[in-house]
Amino acid sequence: MADWNLLGKLLESAQEHSTVVGKVWLTVLFIFRILVLGAAAEKVWGDEQSSFTCDTKQPGCQNVCYDTTFPISHIRFWVMQIIFVSTPTLIYLGHILHLVRMEEKEKQKQKELEDQQQVFCHKDKKPSVKDKQGHARLQGALLRTYVFNIIFKTLFEVAFIVAQYFLYGFELKAMYTCDRWPCPNMVNCYISRPTEKTIFILFMLAVNFKTELNFSLIQVTSSFSELKCQIFLPLKTLRPDEQNQPFGIYLPG
């Protein structure tokens, strides 16, 4: 199994700037997917190709039948799924780091300007990227990135579930038939531990449906509510004569 340390550290950094639901999502991702995949599932599929046998000795027949039955290994498929589902979160983390870096540069530039002119330049302060606890504020462009992060995570989850259904189905049979060349005729091929592998497949699907998609739906709902408040709340606080003016401009009467 690949080394998950780097991905784990990056997702841990993203967890510091996530909502409560987002933190639960990351915990579930690690415990029920990455750890199970690394500790148990790989051992179950460890003999996947070596134990795939067909009732023929024709050279090459067994290899092409295995390729037909399993276009991609379940383990590699799930690794790809975790990487794709984690990518939007890593992009969200990159946006946070970019905003923090830009804020630090702006503060440094302002300090140098004040030192050169030896005067205090009063400037309207932008809200800090981080709150008092050091967590990123979900507002403006960052909130939109967070919403897109959740949407794309959900889309990737659905896409991989559909892809898994069309590639293998949700249940493994003990015997598969194959008639690809160079097989001399229709041959029967057998896999090892089909019941145990089916249980793992159903477990991974249950994790997808019961946690990933449910948490994503809750996150999308709460994030859209926050986005709606940030857009419409300032408009409600304007005076009636201000509401008829272009946004952000006040013309005295």
- Give me the number of helical elements: 7
Biggest sheet descriptor:
3 strands, antiparallel
Percentage of residues in helical conformation: 55-70%
Distance between the termini: 70 Å
What Rg do the Cα atoms give? 27 Å
Number of strands: 3
Mean pLDDT score: 72
DSSP strand content = under 5%
Q: Give, in order, the helices and strands.
A: HHEHHHEEHH
The total domain count is 1
Residue stretches low in confidence (pLDDT < 50, at least 5 long) are: 231-239, 242-253
Q: Please identify the top-level CATH class.
A: Mainly Alpha
The largest sheet has its strands arranged as 1-3-2
CATH superfamily: Gap junction channel protein cysteine-rich domain
Looking at CATH, which topology would you report? de novo design (two linked rop proteins)
Describe the protein's topology.
Elements: H1 5-15, H2 20-44, E1 53-54, H3 61-69, H4 74-117, H5 140-167, E2 175-178, E3 187-190, H6 194-236, H7 240-243
Antiparallel strand pairs: 1-3, 2-3
Family: Belongs to the connexin family.
GO cellular component, one term: connexin complex
Subcellular location: Cell junction, Gap junction; Cell membrane
